[in-house]
Structure formats: structure tokens, C-alpha cells
Write a structure and sequence with these properties.
Length: 130
């Protein structure tokens, strides 16, 4: 129904506008540093899942997520004022855990690397004259 390019442009526009709304308009003291990671937009443009990644302690992350989720109707209303489209999508705020998963993977890789590192002063292995 809608072209891929239009859908991609709408996702990018919504992501940028939601990030600006959170940064500039939400005055809730529970909201800490947060990144709008990506937006999934329904084919008919009537619904958008907004994925956010809050930063800080576990308590700060939970508090930020709850505050932004509670502000979803306000965010949607401001989104309607900022972008001119026929229908403003309903939005659902979701937690993007990809950054946390990446941190875990990198930490595990560093641990494996340290376990397999040769002790200091050990000569490198002989590769048979290669």
C-alpha cells in the first residue's frame, strides 16, 4: 500500500521527533538520559512501536521507562502538531535491550580473551617457520 521509501522516511521522522519531544518537552523529573533507538511502524502507518534505551542505574532506567511510557499520549499529541500527516499513529513505548545485550557480549569476550592471554614474559608460540 505505502512505498518502502515513504515508510522508512516516516520511521526516521517519527524517531527524530519523539527524541526531540522527550528531550525538550517532557519535564518529568523521573526521566533521565534516554536514547530513542528505533521505530517500528505498521504498514498502514496507524501504529508505531517506539524503542527506547534508558541509561543509568537499574532504578533510574525503570523510572525513566515508566515516565516515558506514561507520557505516550502527550508525545502522540505533540507528534501530531509537529508532523503533518493524515493519521498520527498510536504509539507504544518499548524497552530496547540490545545495548545491554551488546555490553554483556563484549564483557564475555574480554573475559575469554583474558583467560586465553599468555602470561607475561612467555615467548610467542613457534608456528613451525611460517
Amino acid at each position: 500500500m505505502f512505498s518502502f521509501k515513504r515508510s522508512a522516511r516516516m520511521r526516521e521522522l517519527i524517531q527524530a521527533e519523539v527524541a526531540a519531544i522527550i528531550r525538550e518537552e517532557l519535564k518529568d523529573p523521573r526521566i533521565g538520559f534516554v536514547t530513542v533507538m528505533h521505530v517500528e511502524l505498521a504498514d498502514n502507518l496507524r501504529h508505531a512501536d517506539i524503542y527506547i534505551s534508558p541509561m543509568g542505574t537499574d532504578q533510574q532506567k525503570k523510572s525513566t521507562f515508566k515516565a516515558i511510557r506514561a507520557a505516550a499520549p502527550f508525545i502522540r499529541r505533540l507528534l501530531g502538531q509537529r508532523i503533518k500527516i493524515k493519521y498520527i499513529p498510536d504509539i507504544t513505548v518499548k524497552w530496547d535491550h540490545s545495548g545491554e545485550h551488546a555490553d554483556t557480549v563484549f564483557r564475555l569476550l574480554r573475559e575469554i580473551e583474558q583467560e586465553h592471554a599468555a602470561p607475561e614474559g612467555t615467548p610467542p608460540p613457534d608456528n613451525g617457520g611460517e
